[in-house]
Write a structure and sequence with these properties.
The model has no long low-confidence stretch (mean pLDDT 97). The chain is globular and about 70 Å long. It is of the alpha/beta class. A 7-stranded mixed beta sheet has the order 1-9-8-5-4-2-3, sandwiched between helices. A two-stranded antiparallel ribbon has the order 6-7. It is built from 12 helices and 13 strands. The structure holds pyridoxal-5'-phosphate. Pyridoxal-5'-phosphate binds next to helix 4 and helix 5. The site of pyridoxal-5'-phosphate has 15 residues, from helix 4 and helix 5.
Length: 367
């Protein structure tokens, strides 16, 4: 049996009719940037996210960069961020000129270890950027309490956890301003690049609208040196189609994850995903860990099963961050996760036969 790691063709074919109708509608509107499709999607995504405002931007990285900018975070400011994240979280902090202050994750949930944050707070600390990694909400309630105590901003990197909850409240609705991504492989994926911020602060939402559009509210009148980072009409229209099914797609993902969790429970040295108390996951990724990761990946590939490593090199060991002179063993938990993690296929539309095949193949590997 052949099971790709992710089947974006199959996922999007479910929407082909409605997506084609939107393409037709946008072509015939003659309006391609910052129009009614964007306004409509922003309203709907804000509702989905339990936030008052959502502003569409060009991609997830820009959502984080513009969020930091909107809070005037820049040169010499320190931002606390997990040591084990996709590099975009770190890059956003670097792009505004601020300093990355990595904090190790919990080894069970892979989200930032809240008990390690306080010791990293200095007089220069301006913000905490928790990442809701692999689809699980971080312990955002505790992080918000800590930020209040120390008068810090919180910017959630919610690229992966659209729809996940922390004590009943949605990921992406805790921080002062939060970024998400509609990269095609994300749970709400566009047919190209896209991203958005969510916030309950009307002033911040307005600031992002100006920042994303050349620093201008009125065309050709520029108040500040802004960027060009807008979610275009076509992607907004496509996303609006897919947003209607996001909750049910996330439910399907949870059912698949529960099937994996049941079949692979207490199995050899295989470590399964775990949730923090009160936190849920949309299972953007189903990440297992094993000391024999590379061997397992090859074995699965030989049996037709695609897997991916998220992520093989932690940010502190990337060449891009050599100026910080981090030692390889400075963030041992991030390194351990990078050395042992493996993401199994998990996406809406996978059937029991496929999941059984994957689980049986893993059992065969250990037999
Ligand atoms: C995907 C992702 C981003 C960046 O999103 P893009 O749309 O690719 O720019 C940021 N952070 C995390 C954790 C991500 O997974």
């Amino acid at each position: 049996m052949n099971i790709p790691f992710l089947d974006l063709k199959k996922i999007n074919q479910n929407y082909e009719h409605d997506l084609a109708a939107q393409l037709h509608s946008v072509i015939n509107s003659g309006w391609f940037i910052t129009g009614n499709k964007l306004i409509e999607f922003e309203k709907n995504y804000a509702d989905f996210s339990g936030s008052q405002f959502s502003v569409g931007v060009g991609n997830g990285l820009d959502a984080l960069i513009l969020s930091l900018k909107s809070l005037n975070i820049g040169k010499d400011d320190e931002v606390i961020v997990p040591s084990n994240t996709y590099i975009a979280s770190w890059l956003a902090i670097s792009y505004v000129g601020a300093i990355v202050v990595p904090v190790e994750p919990r080894i069970d949930t892979y989200n930032i270890d809240v008990s390690l944050i306080e010791e990293k707070i200095t007089s220069k600390t301006k913000a905490i950027m928790p990442v809701n990694l692999y689809g699980q909400a971080a312990e955002l309630d505790k992080i918000m309490a800590l930020s209040k105590k120390h008068n810090l901003y919180v910017i959630e990197d919610n690229a992966q956890a659209q729809g996940a909850l922390c004590h009943g409240k949605l990921a992406g609705s805790f921080g002062h301003i939060n970024g998400t991504s509609f990269y095609p492989g994300k749970n709400l994926g566009a047919l190209g690049d896209g991203g958005a911020i969510t916030t309950n602060d009307a002033d911040l939402a307005e600031k992002i609208k100006v920042l994303r559009n050349y620093g201008s509210q009125k065309k050709y009148y520029n108040e500040i040196k802004g960027y060009n980072s807008r979610l275009d009409e076509l992607q907004a229209a496509f996303l609006d189609v897919k947003l209607k099914k996001l909750a049910s797609e996330n439910e399907q993902r949870v059912i698949i994850a529960e099937n994996y969790l049941q079949q692979l429970a207490n199995f050899e040295d295989l470590i399964l995903p775990q949730l923090a108390e009160g936190c849920t996951s949309n299972y953007h990724l189903f990440v297992v860990r094993t000391k024999r990761r590379n061997e397992l990946q090859k074995f699965l590939l030989d049996k037709g099963i695609g897997t991916v490593i998220h992520y093989p090199v932690p940010p502190h060991m990337q060449k891009a961050y050599k100026e910080y002179e981090f030692s390889d063993d400075q963030f041992p938990i991030a390194s351990l996760i990078a050395e042992t993690c493996l993401s199994l296929p998990l996406y809406p539309g996978m059937d029991d036969e496929q999941i059984n095949y994957i689980c049986n193949t893993i059992k065969l590997f250990y037999a």
